[in-house]
Design brief:
The complex is a heterodimer of chains A (252) and B (242). Chain A is an alpha+beta fold. Chain A has seven helices and ten strands. Chain A has a single domain, classed as Alpha-Beta Complex (Sulfite Oxidase, Chain A, domain 2). By secondary structure, chain B is mainly α. Chain B is 68% helix and 2% strand. A two-stranded antiparallel ribbon of chain B has the order 1-2. The chains are: A alpha+beta (252), B mainly alpha (242). The interface between A and B is large, with 53 and 53 residues.
Chain lengths: 252, 242
């Protein structure tokens, strides 16, 4: 009996030492290959970093599940949004003809795009599920311009690591890494099911990131900034979500 | 040394022997901490949508499979209570996943050590004489008569204990990990069968809730049994090994 416990202790000691050495090496490799999330500090940092790194190693190019047309939800759930600002009401009254999406940061040709200019780029439609961190979900068809098409049009510089995106609504902004920004299903969405994207669902322009939870799909997009670091944005945690206590990476 | 002395030495050795090995004890207490973190944060997350569905999709515009009759932390959920609870999902989700990582890594250490050391084979597999309904009935009878545990009961597990522990280790824990991971939209993009085999996202969520409930039932029975057998002596044994 005694020998087993000694063996157990030795096994445990070796495992712990290997673990510590492994962690040190892993953190160096991870920061080099972009496996560290912007909100990696604090008591939840280790878990968050493990989640993001594991997800990036397993799911860099995988496609979110797409569903048959018959599975589209009869009544999709329109989540609550803040009451519209005067500026939004003015743009709505004009049929969003004056809505503009600015693209700046680490791009060769910064520009400003109207919805119809976005529509002239190659488009894509997909039937995917919106998944909320609260637990509910629904399926809809989303139609729009892949973010990668717009990024190709403006010419992203090689040192780019994140795309930050901003809503017309104050303090509503987020960011994704280049794996999600260049992902074929990440859509600048301007239509849903059989019509224009309704205001309640983010119209006229919403970024849909179907491999992450709904809160990454920011509504009423007005600006994209390509950057190599999220340190200069807000509190430097990657998005407004961690400032409100929620994780930056929402693929889980 | 006479035969008498030899048997006395054997008895003394048995009395001094460890009830639980070091790895079992360390992984047990890490699991306890993680389990409480997971149950509390899981409960907090459920409060933001205390409705459960079956199939791929589910939301307040759809008929739920069942509803937990509590107030919600979201005013978009019609609960019938005119009261919205405070939102705890941010830190709950952070802690839920951190504790999940800790318990999965701990479980891996326990599982590998258990295979290598023979812990599963020697301590948890039912012995040849125990693999019968009669043996199970005998143990149940002893519990129902509330027969006081003998010295042997402190040193080894009876067939019901073995079945409960094996069920938790090899059925409930793998299931709770499977159904939990099936809630990650990103993980599902790489491994769609992982959630599809469960019948869809809302099935995975509902099953995750039920399996967690089964683990809580195990915890309650486990602590009750420990209390009946002698709470402090058994708890001390799981800390010091003796």
């Amino acid at each position: 009996m005694k020998e087993i416990s000694r063996r157990g202790l030795i096994t445990g000691g070796v495992a712990a030492t290997a673990g510590v050495a492994g962690l040190a090496a892993a953190s160096r490799i991870a920061s080099r290959y972009g496996l560290i999330p912007p909100d990696c500090k604090g008591i939840y940092g280790p878990g968050e970093t493990l989640t993001y790194a594991a997800q990036r190693l397993l799911t860099a190019h995988s496609l979110a599940r797409e569903f048959p047309r018959s599975m589209i939800s009869k009544i999709p759930f329109r989540n609550e949004t803040a009451p519209p600002s005067d500026e939004f009401k003015r743009l709505l009254a004009g049929g969003f003809a004056d809505w503009r999406l600015a693209v700046d940061g680490m791009v060769a040709r910064p520009g400003v795009y109207s919805i119809s200019e976005l529509k002239s780029l190659p488009m894509r439609s997909q039937i995917t599920e919106v998944v909320c961190e609260e637990g509910w979900s629904y399926i809809a068809e989303w139609i729009g311009t892949p973010l990668s098409e717009l990024l190709n049009a403006v010419g992203v510089l090689p040192q780019a690591r994140y795309v930050a995106y901003f809503s017309i609504e104050k303090d509503w902004w987020d960011s994704i890494d280049m794996a999600d920004a260049g992902h074929p299903q990440t859509l600048l969405t301007w239509a849903m099911n059989d019509g224009d994207l309704p205001v309640g669902f983010g119209g006229p322009l919403r970024l849909r990131v179907p491999r992450q939870l709904g809160y990454k799909s920011v509504k009423y997009l007005t600006r994209l900034t390509v950057t190599d670091s999220m340190k200069k944005f807000g509190q430097g945690l990657g998005s407004a979500a961690p400032e409100g206590g929620y994780a930056w990476y929402a693929g889980i | 040394m006479t035969r008498m002395d030899a048997s006395r030495v054997a008895l003394r050795d048995a009395a001094q022997a460890q009830r639980h090995g070091a790895i079992v004890r360390i992984t047990h207490w890490i699991t306890v901490v993680c389990f409480f973190a997971l149950v509390i944060t899981g409960g907090e997350i459920v409060i933001s949508h205390p409705r459960f569905y079956w199939g791929e999709t589910g939301n307040v515009n759809m008929k739920p499979l069942f509803t937990i009759p509590i107030a919600s932390s979201r005013d978009t959920v019609p609960t019938g209570y005119g009261y919205v609870m405070p939102d705890q999902n941010g830190w709950s989700r952070y802690l839920h996943f951190e504790a999940a990582w800790a318990v999965v890594l701990t479980g891996l250490v326990y599982g590998i050590a258990g295979l290598v050391s023979g812990h599963f084979r020697k301590d948890l597999m039912a012995g040849r004489g125990e693999r019968s309904w009669r043996a199970v009935r005998d143990v149940m009878g002893r519990y129902l008569r509330r027969a006081p545990p003998g010295e042997a009961d402190a040193r080894s597990y009876n067939v019901l204990q073995k079945m409960a522990y094996l069920g938790v280790i090899f059925v409930l824990f793998p299931l709770v990990i499977w159904t939990g991971l099936a809630l990650s939209p990103s993980f599902n993009s790489a491994f769609p069968f992982w959630v599809n085999v469960l019948g869809g996202r809302q099935c995975a969520r509902t099953l995750h809730f039920f399996v967690s409930g089964a683990l809580v039932v195990f915890l309650v029975v486990h602590v009750t049994m420990v209390a009946m057998a002698g709470f402090w002596s058994r708890t001390k044994a799981m800390i010091t090994g003796r």
